[in-house]
Amino acid sequence: MKSLKFLLMMSLSLPVSAQVIVDVSPGSATEGTTTTVIIRGVGTNFRSGQSVADFGDGILVQNPINVQTPTIAAAIITISPGAIPGFRNVTVTTDSETATKLNGFEVFTPSGNFRAILEIVPYDTYNASDFDVTNIQSLPLLYFVNLINDNVNRDIEIEVSLSSQKFGKVASLTTRKNLLANQSLRINNRNFEKITISGLQGQSSGGYAFADEVQRLGQFPPDNYEVELTVKDKNGNIIASDKGTSVVSNPLFNPELIAPGNEFWMNPAIVQTEFPLFQWFGQNERYDFALYKVLPGQTPEEVVRNIHVFKQENLTGNSFQYPQFAEHLIDGQVYAWQITGKVITSRGEIRLPSQVFRFIYQKPVDQSGTGRRVARIEVIPAQAQVSACGQMLFAANMYDNDNMPILNRQPQWRVVPSNMGTINGNGTFTAGINNGTAAIIAMDSGLQDFATVTITGGAVSGSSGKLPDWKVELLMKQLFGIQ
Question: Cα-flanking dihedrals φ and ψ of residue 326, to 5°?
Fold first, then answer.
């Protein structure tokens, strides 16, 4: 069966050819303190109970670290009072995989120069609906600013700016604070007082274009974001700065199952492989897989309340090979399976269940002398590209056990995701209006194969009009927690 690794993946422009740590937040702390550090990787496979971190000499890490996703983990560290000030490499090891950020963390003494440290709170998605400006204390925490003053009373201005790879600089938030000598202060995005929107209305970049896109999508656009902190004294001189990065992928789409099996309104597909390969579409970093026995007359909603036959949590990728150590499938038994995607948002973890597929397992039988039966299906072309609302003809070649073609036989056709287009009984696919990728699935005798089709040149649903200036300002204040 073809690989699904490239299907429906969000393009984020960061290299993923190697496992690297791209952000450590906060990136510094003082001697004798305990703090939680968020580690974000690219191309990594952090695993709960297995990933361990190393912050260098003088820093104790509570291992294994707390893994949130394969690319995000939290480490609780304690810096010894006698730790030597300076930079350390940060390394996370998961089995044979090692990800490193050179000079990723700094230890410094409590006294000395003025310090400002930026902490970014990582989420997979930011939904506009999460930001209720009428209740400032309910706003999600986007970042923290930690200030450690020296032995001088200071009147300072704090500025935090947000930039995206696509839109450039979006906005800057500012506030003023008075710090006493040797005072420490920790504030977050709820505590800022003023926002300055970058760019001009009608341009393709800047804060106004960003606000139009947020209005259209209902969430932050998928992109690489950079947050920069600048602290100035009363004369406007920069006395400290820091920066961090965040990746927003917005994978808020329920997974859609591909194989094996089909939905309950159809007759159960036949599976003759004792250890099937389960495959699905999805944009999430983590999935839970569950397999159930189906009792007579049960609906999909009733099936998923059964005790599962087998369950595997925190899968990555878009396929799962049923393992040999799991409970063996029973000849003639009807089974159902479901995938649940998991996303970390500013409101906590969201679980996104797929539909439920069912199939009946039958042990392979000797087909000699019983006539020609379908043993293999091949959909052609295996990959295709079509314009939005355009058409493409697919065919399904069927073969028997001797690999001889079976002619004049049409399969059942299906499109996944179903909103990407339709297909008729002759295999003519009609694309929908939106860009994206779909699977064209042919099924016969409980067997199936699929092709992938990329839809280009289409529109994206939602408002495309430009927001007036006052609405942009209101939206941006809402997004960044400015009262």
Answer: -75, 170
What is the chain's alpha carbon radius of gyration, rounded to the nearest angstrom? Answer: 27
**Burial of 5 per CB tally in 10 Å (0-12, 13-18, 19+):** exposed
The span from the CA of 382 to the CA of 435, in Å, is: 19
Nearest-CA neighbor of 78 among 36, 108, 112?
A: 36
Q: Are 476 and 171 in contact (CB under 8 A)?
A: yes
> For residues 379 and 439, what is the distance between their CA atoms, to the nearest angstrom?
11
Dist. CA 38–CA 71, nearest whole Å: 10
Token pair recorded at residue 84? 């030597």
CA distance 332 to 270: 9
Q: Which of 361, 300, 359 is nearest to 332 (CA)?
A: 361
Which alpha helices (H) appear in 151-230, and where do they start and end?
207-217
Q: Given the structure tokens 């341009």, which residue do they identify?
A: 203
The predicted-structure confidence for 207-219, as pLDDT tens digits, reads as follows 888 888 877 766 6
Which residues are CB-contacts of 309 (< 8 A; sequence separation ≥ 6)? 291, 292, 293, 326, 327, 335
Tokens 């000499």 locate to: 57
> What is the C-alpha separation between 403 and 272, in angstroms, rounded?
17
Beta bridge partners of 286: 342
CA distance 34 to 55: 13
Among 227, 162, 153, 163, which residue's Cα sits nearest to residue 185? 153
Residues in contact with 243: Cβ distance below 8 Å, sequence separation at least 6, in sequence order: 118, 226, 227, 228, 229
* The pLDDT of residue 8 is above 50: no
| Beta strand pairing call for 269-271 and 357-361 | parallel
Neighbouring-strand partners of residue 436: 455
Residue with tokens 């040149």: 457
Contact 361, 260 (CB under 8 A): no
Please give the pLDDT value at position 358. 94
* Residues 363, 267 contacting (CB under 8 angstroms): no
Q: Tokens 């810096």 appear where?
A: 79
Q: pTM to 2 decimals?
A: 0.50
Section 182-204 average pLDDT: 82
Contact 39, 73 (CB under 8 A): yes
Decide: 336 and 294 in contact? Cβ < 8 Å.
Answer: yes
CB 318 within 8 A of CB 52: no
Cα distances (Å, whole numbers) of residue 132 to 104, 140, 172, 209, 472: 35, 9, 20, 22, 15
